[in-house]
Amino acid sequence: MEKKQFQAESKRLLEMMINSIYTQKEIFLRELISNASDAIDKIYYKALTDSTLVFDQDHYYIKVTADAENRTLTIRDTGIGMTEEELEANLGVIAKSGSLAFKREHESKDGHDLIGQFGVGFYSAFMVADEVIVRSRALGSERAYQWQSTGAEGYTIEPCDKQDVGTEILLKIKENTEDENYDEYLEPYRLKAIIKKYSDFIRYPIKMDIADQEDQTLNSMVPIWRKNKNELTPADYENFYTEKHYGFDKPIKHIHLNVEGSVTYQAILFIPETIPFDYYSKEFEKGLELYSNGVLIMDKCSDLLPDHFSFVKGMVDSDSLSLNISRELLQHDRQLKLIAKNIAGKIKSQLLSLLKDEREQYEKFYNSFGRQLKFGVYSDFGANKDALQDLLLFHSSKEQKLVTLDEYVSRMPEDQKYIYYATGDSIERIEKLPQTELVTDKGYELLYFTDDIDEFAIKMLMTYKDKEFKNVSSGDLGIEEAENQTQQEQQENQELFAYMTTQLSGKVTNVRASKRLKKHPVCLSTEGDVTIEMEKILNAMPN
Ligand code: ADP
Ligand code: MG
């Protein structure tokens, strides 16, 4: 038997492949199962146009068999198989993708669901195997062939025995080394977990052969996001949320998207109810699961979510992404940016309608994640303020409720110029502030800022519907009357004020008469943009 050699370049490429393209060894199984699924798809597509072929669903499956004793792992499919020439062409030439060629041939028809495109995934088997043996019998062929290789050294092809059409890939799993555990790829529970993680939505059953056990189908097969919304119940979404380990809580809302047009994707997104324990810490990683054609590409694709919506959980599936060769990362992708933008818009409108139609639910949400929205207004120099300002809620002196800025502004009396707010640690403390008196006496509504970030966020907004925000402790509230009377009092008490200013030097810059006070004899106020509360926070910040 003649041993054929890889070309020098191919050898180098293969070594690179095996050692550096993939960050995780476990994905070899994803790649081999994806190939098996493609092989079955090809029969399916053929059957669409070839009336002599019957596609009997029951006959098509993928079977994974681990034999720990002999250290072999076999992935078998009942797909289209490969002829001798195809074995040579597809497995002997790195970066040659029979599946991509198939897709091109069938461009106008189906075939776009095929996963393969780069012609490298197969070789990932060598990350975990010393030797790979492929036995295959092509559809319509009487003969079967065996391709065998130990990696960079080359491969052999020879006839073999195989009764049915399809392909069987046998991996001789490597021995454990000091820093790598390969035994795990022979353990059924570990294999199951890998299959569940990456290949749960492969359209054909993936079965596992375990000694003394009946075959189990491991994957769910039908991605719920491809189902019609009308066929799904709230419980279906909740189960999906739990199964996918998005959280232990019951989500407040789900968003099921099926978008077609300049971007095409499906997504199921959730707005959780409770804050993940690490949410407001550096450890928290935002992101959505990203699938391409039903195969998991990324656990947490952070580019899909803006920071201010980092609480959203869920997944996106799109077949119009340009993946890089490892299919673990995306190329700098315009498509992804468009999807992200689209998603952000959908989340915003979903939150707005929650606010409008299910206020109680919205407030529940806001209690958990409102702070993040306020951070969103504050960060990026207010770039997101337009998107977020209508989602904000603040405590208010009116009815002691949370109110939106729109609610505040729409009931402002005509003579009221500003949106007034006061800051403090708690509502009770704010209510005791002497500075609030004048405003509330006037019958004006007052927003209570009890969160550090509130005032910073509002400074970014600057105005809402052309109304400026005004801290009640700032110098001029725009409602003080009798300016000249104040001036007169100022003159009469000049000596006293001067004395007080020197006594309090370093603590205050000036003592002045004010028309602001009603019941209280004295209050603190600031001049300029930085208010007392902001000063406190700024002083407490590490430099
Ligand atoms: P890709 O899947 O990106 O095309 P791979 O390296 O994973 O690249 O596979 C190379 C080619 O080998 C595939 O395109 C396909 O033509 C062929 N192939 C691989 N596995 C199988 C299989 N189980 N059955 C039939 N053909 C296969
Ligand atoms: Mg492949």
Automatic annotation (TrEMBL):
User: Lineage from the top down?
Assistant: Bacteria, Bacillati, Bacillota, Bacilli, Bacillales
Family note: Belongs to the heat shock protein 90 family.
Function text: Molecular chaperone. Has ATPase activity.
Record InterPro entries: HATPase_C_sf, HATPase_dom, Heat_shock_protein_90_CS, HSP90_C, Hsp90_fam, Hsp90_N, Ribosomal_Su5_D2-typ_SF
State whether it acts alone or in a complex, and with which partners, per the record. Answer: Homodimer.
CDD domains (alphabetical): HATPase_Hsp90-like
Region A: start-end pairs:
1-327
Compartments (UniProt record): Cytoplasm
Q: Which residues form the Histidine kinase/HSP90-like ATPase domain?
A: 24-177
* Superkingdom: Bacteria
Question: Know the name of this protein?
Answer: Chaperone protein HtpG
Keywords from UniProt, A to Z, are: ATP-binding, Chaperone, Cytoplasm, Nucleotide-binding, Stress response
Q: According to its UniProt record, where is this protein mainly located?
A: cytoplasm
